[in-house]
Design brief:
The structure is a homodimer.
Chain A: E1 7-13, H1 15-18, H2 26-36, E2 40-47, H3 51-62, E3 67-71, H4 82-90, H5 98-108, H6 114-117, E4 127-129, E5 138-141, E6 144-147, H7 151-161, E7 172-179, H8 187-196, E8 201-207, E9 216-223, H9 226-242, E10 247-249
Parallel strand pairs in A: 1-2, 1-3, 3-6
Antiparallel strand pairs in A: 4-5, 5-6, 7-9, 7-10, 8-9
Helix pairs in contact in A: 2-7, 3-4
Amino acid sequence: MTESSPTAAVLIIGDEVLSGRTQDTNLNTIARFLAALGIDLEEARTIGDRKDQIVDSLNALRTSHDYVFTTGGIGPTHDDITADAVATAFGVALPEHPDAVAILARRYGDDFNAARRRMARIPEGGTLIANPVTDAPGFQIGNVFVMAGVPKIMTAMLEDVAPRLRTGAVVHARTIRVTGVGEGAIADLLTAAARAEREISFGSYPFGHGSVGEMGTHLVVRGRDVARVEAATEGLLAELAAAGIEASLA
Amino acid sequence: MTESSPTAAVLIIGDEVLSGRTQDTNLNTIARFLAALGIDLEEARTIGDRKDQIVDSLNALRTSHDYVFTTGGIGPTHDDITADAVATAFGVALPEHPDAVAILARRYGDDFNAARRRMARIPEGGTLIANPVTDAPGFQIGNVFVMAGVPKIMTAMLEDVAPRLRTGAVVHARTIRVTGVGEGAIADLLTAAARAEREISFGSYPFGHGSVGEMGTHLVVRGRDVARVEAATEGLLAELAAAGIEASLA
């Protein structure tokens, strides 16, 4: 893609994902969010609730991408260690943030106990990310955005994150649905298209294999210049028609 | 967990996951598969269809875990570059494997073209992984298992992979459903339980926040010694009852 598009990585923190107990959906939500802003998501890592692993992964990702988004581990219980790990990764202290204390005190009233107070600890220099669902905030420090693991809360936090991001040129995509033939029957045609137009990416995704329904291939044409995406899509449709292969825009 | 349990990492290869087009489910399938075999899944990475990124990630993961499982990028089209990248990562050639040629020739007959023949290229020293869905094989080389990205095919390939793996002691889990209170109300009780029993892990996962239905917390008690898991679960249930908190086995 273009030189100037910001790049990003995601760090999913949680034993429950690696144990198979939970099917993560946050990565997909963040991926679609970033695509709409023209930010290139280059990598995601899923790791456990282990401080050394969080510190090492975060330091690797934050130095090699413009933005890092983390999910998970910012609740009130003993297994919520993300804030501690982020503070260690940045080499800063983890004091209570007065605004976070105020937000949580207002929410919990007489039930604002020590465990809940842990959620007010924000790495020095961090700014809060609003949580309109359960109030306990996430935070931003440098190029790292630390969010909740509960999908509903994570998704809501992205609203407060969006205005802080530099955006890029959005990637446009068109999908062609090819029916009745597998990838192998259209591979040469696709390779020729990819060679002729280097600014455009051509993805090929089979569907329906091994099941009783219709089988075929989805061809996804992607690029930042919408006119070139349209032209490449039209060209591919014409090539498929000329080869007698059934295809249409999906 | 115990010293002797094998460790594993997963490498999800595919632009379609990072672009948000596709919600990955393979990681969850592999996670549950490994959990049943007593193999510790320590990390997963999701990367794009870029050869340098595949090579670097694979070399990082295969030297730090007992097993690595990859998904995606082994089809017949130009964007399927996983076999090339794996060969480069291992520093070996990528010749056609005679058994793979035979399997594909039988499947495709007169339609066995050059693009489909690409799928018979297996890194030198690799052995095939059977694909009972569409025949095109995956492969194992060293401690790396290279599988398809289509979930139905990937899942079927795991059947052929399972007998090749050293297994560990299975992690047992019990889930307690706490209703009517959030994590903050039970955090102290959970911390005390975790301190008293170091061989057991206690996870805490809120549910129902911000929605109209029931809210509460799932407590997951995990460990390799089933008796200790049961004892810790019973102990936690008793503590919750003593505190007047509604809880039951999920």
